[in-house]
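ok trying again, last paste got cut off:
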Amino acid sequence: MPRTSAYARAYQALTRGRALRPDEAAELLAELRKETAKELTDTVLEQLVTDSQVTSTDTEGVIRRKRRAFSAASKTLRAIRQAAASTPTTPGPSGPARPYGPARDVTSPL
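nice, full thing came through this time. structure:
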């Protein structure tokens, strides 16, 4: 039996009026974030592969630029997937999670 997507489960909970416990909601949102990141990066990667194809009229310089662009974009897509998979969504003991690290003192120069 295929697994129901996080989007479908969230939709069903919202439309059926079923309240989710906070831990259920956090888990569902985390799964939804992961699924969305995967779908987005898969689509972008597919387009990137198409755009990076070497043609018979490409010069060596164009080929090098395409390879560099593909490499940089691939690293970015990998970072997006990792960030989506690792960002906490449940509140910690001191309040909501801060996915970008602790709050910075805006009065200090750095």
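cool. The mean pLDDT is 81. The radius of gyration is 20 Å.
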